[in-house]
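User: I'm putting together notes for a lab meeting next week and I want to include a structural view of one of the chains we've been expressing. I don't have a solved structure, so I'd like a prediction I can at least talk through. The sequence is below, exactly as it appears in our construct file.
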Amino acid sequence: YERRSPQNENNSMSISPPLTTAHLLRVCALGLVTFKLVGGRFWAISPSSYTNLGSFARVSLPATLKYGNTKERAMIDKMGRTFGCHTCGSRMFFSRSRAGVKFHADHMPPKAVAKQINSRWYRRVLGWTVRQRFYPQCTTCSNTQGGMLSRASNELKNSGSFLSRKPKLAEAGGGKAAHFHGTRLRLHHSAGAVVAAVTICDTDQEAVSNGNHRRFQKMQETLETWCFGAWCGMKEFSPKKN
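Assistant: Thanks for the context. Below is the predicted structure for the 242-residue chain, given as structure tokens.
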């Protein structure tokens, strides 16, 4: 029986190298690039206000204070089925609708908000008006928005004297009243899983314990080589000045 000293035990154990700043930056870069490649947007991380542009706003149509006509409503309904509601992101796949309409042409900013902004004295003097656009909004979010603006408009009418602070209609659908969509799973939520897969797949336990920094470093070197080759190719085929 051979008794091993604590010093020998420490020497026999493999000590993982500390995570360097360069390695952490590579991991963050991979996560951010993956997040963007699968359709993620940083704006969509925050909750959606019902009275401002939603987190999932992508496509829109020019709008006036009037409601959308038949052609505009049909285009907005098609946009909503393709890109989703600009407030909650839903495409209403499994939802029933009245008369086949699942998305409304939502004024952004809403009509009541635009009228309040346009009523400011300096805008009246300078002739400035708010530009509005139509965004697809599902019937559920549209009904919620209508109720919020109705209550906020009543509070505005009963706000008291001229000198008292008037409530801003644009803030009625934000804060605690905003739509929280963090529990709805989306493709860009898989960015973290991609980083984890690159770290642990087809490797040993020792490499995993130190974050597989060699693999990430090799990925960086490959990308640098590819970018340098692409830059040299563009420079070679660029027209030369006489």
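A couple of points you could mention at the meeting. The beta strands are 61-63, 103-108, 132-138. The chain has a mean pLDDT of 80.

User: Perfect, that's what I needed.
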